[in-house]
Amino acid sequence: MEFPKEGEFITIKSYKHDGSLHRTWRDTMVLKTTENALIGCNDHTLVIESDGRRWKTREPALVYFHKHYWFNIVTMIRQKGVSYYCNMASPYLIDEEGAKYIDYDLDVKVFPDGEKRLLDVDEYEEHGKKWDYPDEIDLILKEHIKILVDWINNEKGPFSEGYVDLWYNRYKQLTGKR
C-alpha cells in the first residue's frame, strides 16, 4: 500500500474494540506522510456516525496519527484559540479504504488556556467490561496517557510552538484558501 500523497484526500475510520465501525471522516486532506506518521486537515468535513447520523465539522482541524503511539491528536483551530482533542486509540494503519484505528474511549482535552481534562472514564470502564479489554491494553493506554501528557507539558509534536501555523498555512496553500 502506497502512502497517500500531500494534497490527496483520504477517509479516516474509527472502530471499537469489537470491530464495529464507530465514526467515519470523509475527505481529510493529507498534508504529510512519513513511514510512521500522518498529518492531515479536516475543514467542514462530513462525519458519519455508526448509527447513520451525518454532520460536518465546524472549524478547521489538524489531525495527527502515529504508528507507535496509542493516541491521535485533533488540533481544533477556533476563533477563541486552539484546543486539542486527543483520542486514546490504537496506532493507525493505512489501507485502500483510508486511515483506520481502534478508539478506546478515553480522551484528553486541552483547552486554549492550557487546562487538561481526562474525559469518558466511565465509558472506558463500561466498554472495558462489555468487550473484555485485555489487561495489556489497559496498561498500554495508561502508559500512553503519561506520554501524551508529557508531550502536552513539554510542547512536543502537535503541541509545539509553530505546529498550527506551519500545517494550517500549508493546508491553505494547497487549497488556495486565505
Automatic annotation (TrEMBL):
Keyword Zinc attached: no
A Pfam family matched in the record: DUF402
All residue ranges annotated as the DUF402 domain in the record: 18-156
Keywords in alphabetical order: Hydrolase, Magnesium, Metal-binding
Top-level taxon: Bacteria
InterPro entries, per the entry: DUF402, FomD-like_sf, Ntdp-like, SA1684
Protein's name in the database: DUF402 domain-containing protein
Organism this protein belongs to: Alkalibacterium iburiense
